[in-house]
Amino acid sequence: MMNAFKTIYRKALKYKSYTIINVGGLAIAFALSSLLLLYVYNEFQVDAFHHNRDRIYRVVDAGDGTAFTNPLLAAELKSAFPEIEEATRVRHNGNGFYKYENAVVDIPYDMCFDPSVFQMFDFKLIEGEENEALLNPFSIVLTKSISAKIFGDKDPLGKVIRYNNLCDFTVTGVMEDLPSNSTFTVDAILPFDVQAYLWNGDPNDRSDALTNRDNSSFHTYAMFNPNVDVSSIKDKITTFCSEKSYEQAFKLQAMNDIYFGDNNRDRWIHKGEKSIVVLLMSIAVGLLMISIINYINLNSAVTLNNLLGFGVRKILGAKPRQVIIISVVETLLFFAVSIGLATLIVGIINQPFQTILEEEYHFSSLLSPANLMVAFGLLFGIALISGMVPVHYFKKVPASSIIKMKSFGKGSSGLLNKPLIIIQFFIAILFIVSAITIKKQVNFINHKNLGFDKELLVYIDLRAYNMTTSEAEVIKGKLLADSRIQNVAYSSGIFGDVRRGIADELNGKKVLYRRIPTDPDYAKTMKYKIVEGRDFSHDLKTDETSKAYIINQALARAFEMENPLEEKLNNHPIVGVVEDFNFEPIQNSIQPVALLCDPSEALWIANVRLNSSDLQSSIQYVERVFKTLKPDSPFRYSFADDRIATYYRKEVQFSRLSAIFSIVNILISCIGLVGLVLFAINRRIKEIGIRKVNGAKVSEILTMLNSDFIKWVAVAFVLATPVAWYAMSKWLESFAYKTTLSWWIFALAGLLALGIAMLTVSWQSWRAATRNPVEALRYE
After folding, report:
1. Measured between alpha carbons, how far is 83 from 77 in angstroms, rounded to an integer?
2. N- to C-terminal Cα distance for the chain?
3. 743 vs 430, 724, 725, CA distance in Å?
4. Which sign does the torsion angle of CA 723, 725, 727, 730 carry?
5. Do 87 and 219 contact (CB within 8 A), yes or no?
6. What letter does residue 128 receive in the DSSP assignment?
7. What is the pLDDT of residue 621?
8. How far from 709 is each of 89, 422, 562, 674, 678, CA to CA, in Å?
9. What are phi and psi of 261, to 5 degrees?
């Protein structure tokens, strides 16, 4: 074994540049791939901390996959099916601010659950009793971090906190913060029954929100008893759900499928993009393949340059098994050194990498015994394959031929290199196409016409103000008195958060649609395009008294309305039809929606359209106006374009990552190509010298040396194009609205790969072609 180590050491010193190329390429690939695979692993581990997750299902619409159900369904399911152990309703209460003494804390995700939540999900209470925490409608369970913000080191149990200057809640529990890989986003848990008090923003108004079967604004989760075959009763359950929801067709969605589901339309549900995760996994695997191909290519080239050593070993009686051992040990040593360097690289770039992804995770989650065994098995397998290359040459050629420095025949040196380099550039071209397509889709997202003007539009959260309609009109008047303000309108929904679902029947069609209560100025402020009828009008009081509708084209199509202006929905007259607009991310198709003229129900969001590009002074003015109404209430606002951008965070991250890793892949491919070119040139030094002595031009020698490499890239392009087209087409299918896969994307990817390869090869070829032939012949 010591002789093997000495042989490996001498070989590494003899071919220093190739040793550096191999170790450096492997180290970079191992570091970046491990970061990507850690991200992928965490994505597939979402909700794994819920030990009941295999038994939990969500009720969703069988058509569009949305999860909006009525408030009675959960209890009815549990009563009708003994196979269901527990059920709960879920709703986002809505960005409340909570006050205790002098501390005021904004709680973005105060969620409403039934008391069974603690039996179904692994929301671990640090303080309080699970069975009692949600029995009182005005109790609240805080997460550990929110509790610390409000109470500091004080014991929170029994403390009373005030919600939105509206009502008081008593803290009955503190739970652990949920891990980042959770579909739920929870800062606090309220009893679901509190919705009966808070639905209309008045704790004294016992709303029918929890008894109205038309109110499809809630999620329903059911947990089955252990060992129940859910597939055997799915049809019965879905039929039951449909009967209890005016024949709306439902289906069950396993909790394991929610994160990567197609229609997670709530901000409090984390949504993953499976296509992105698969592509990132492909990038990681591709990066590893390119670096390993580099290693095998360069190792085989070094083997060919070291024929004399093989000949001597063969004459001295060495067996193929000994050659395999040396080669495998050599590869494992290279891997060990590379993994050590990769660890250092990960330590340097891990934090910036997590910043780009806006995620936080730890390598400990990846270091399970099963994962480590798979990794070591793969590395040993690669080492064994790499070890077969020298054995192939060792067994193939007689020792006497090797000693005389005879070659293995024309073209034999490329038997392995050619397909491996084709694979290398095949992967590189895939990455280039992916990076360009993803960037094109992100640009499409940023510039798509959403059906309204998102520029200079500000959303003001009103829920902390508890305004009356008359107070809202006073605020509007003061705002419009300033030239910096163009329009103001109130609504109970904003982009990405339109919660109120309603089921209606018309012309024999039953349709679930979203309803947005607004004031008469909403469509004008949003700049919706009216295609039929008219806008709401302050001059026509019947718009408010009859609670008129303006519907979108999608709703008119859903009900198959021939003359929408002559129809009524649930006794609401339709006065106008607007062009379809996106009120959800463009991954989702435009859904039916109705604007309801009801100012008293619209005091959730103030939509303020600015005139001035001086945003800071405009916002300061708006804040001063609102502070005149409730000086102690927090002023919370967001720009529409910023809010919309948050929904495409993963696509933007992916665009950055794909660009970075495409560049890294190409660089590693080129580094390996440089090594192979140098070996190819060194093996043909005498030939190049003879050709120059006989009058060959530099251009002829360049053509001779470059032609093979260009051919390989061309073959890689032909093979990669259909695969890249299919992969990107599948990714784009996750968007309801998407860019096109233009022909120039593939042409540009091929030209980039070819150009980079030619520059890499031509530089070394030019140096060889311009070398003094006398030196070449003397060298030889």
Report:
1. 10
2. 34
3. 14, 12, 10
4. negative
5. no
6. S
7. 94
8. 63, 9, 64, 11, 13
9. -70, 160
Cα 124 to chain centroid distance, Å, stands at: 27
Q: Residue 603 gets which letter from DSSP?
A: B
Task: Give the start-end residues of each E strand in 399-471.
Answer: 457-461
Helix (H) and strand (E) counts in the chain: 24, 23
DSSP letters for 410-421: TTTTHHHHHHHH
For residues 253, 256, 260 and 261, what is the CA-based torsion angle, rounded to 10 degrees? 0
pLDDT at 392: 61
**Alpha-carbon 663 to chain mean position:** 21
Distances (CA, A) of 433 to 8, 53, 517: 40, 38, 45
The residue behind tokens 């995760």 is 277
Q: Residue 416: its pLDDT value, please?
A: 47
358: left (phi over 0), alpha (psi -120 to 50) or beta: left
pLDDT at 779: 47
Contact 672, 301 (CB under 8 A): no
CA gap 216, 199 in Å, rounded: 13
- What's the distance, CA 696 to chain centroid? 56
Helix (H, G, I), strand (E, B) or coil at 553: helix
Hey, what amino acid is at 774? V
Write out pLDDT tens, residues 378-407: 777 777 776 666 666 556 656 555 555 444
Q: Which of 503, 532, 307 is nearest to 404 (CA)?
A: 307
CA distances for 253 relative to 53, 243, 298, angstroms = 12, 18, 51
Q: Strands, E, within 62-131: which ranges?
A: 84-92, 96-100, 103-107, 110-113, 125-127
Q: Tell me, what amino acid is at 667?
A: L
Q: Which residues contact 89 (CB under 8 A, 6 or more apart)?
A: 71, 73, 74, 112, 113, 114, 192, 218, 219, 220, 221
Q: How far is CA 670 from CA 16, 208, 538, 673, in A?
A: 18, 68, 68, 5
What is the pLDDT at residue 541? 86
Element at 746 (helix H, strand E) = helix 743-769
pLDDT in the model for residue 655 = 85
Which among 551, 553, 576, 557 is positioned nearest to 565, based on CA atoms? 576
Residues 344, 347, 348: CA angle, nearest 5 degrees:
90
What is the H or E stretch that residue 449 is in?
A: none
CA–CA distance, 147 with 157 (Å, rounded to integer): 10
Query: What does the pLDDT look like over 22-39, one tens digit per residue?
Result: 888 888 888 888 888 888
CA distance 673 to 329: 25
Q: Which residue type, as a one-letter code, is found at position 426? A: F
| Residues 6 or more apart whose Cβ sits within 8 Å of residue 637 | 458, 459, 460, 461, 619, 622, 623
**Spans in the chain with pLDDT lower than 50:** 405-416, 779-780
Residues 6+ apart with CB under 8 A from 776: 685, 686, 688, 689, 692
Query: H/E element holding 684?
Result: none
- Reported as type and span, the H/E element at residue 36 is helix 16-44
Query: For residue range 710-756, what is the model confidence (pLDDT) as tens digits?
Result: 888 889 999 999 999 998 998 888 788 899 999 999 999 999 888 88
Q: Which amino acid is at 579?
A: E
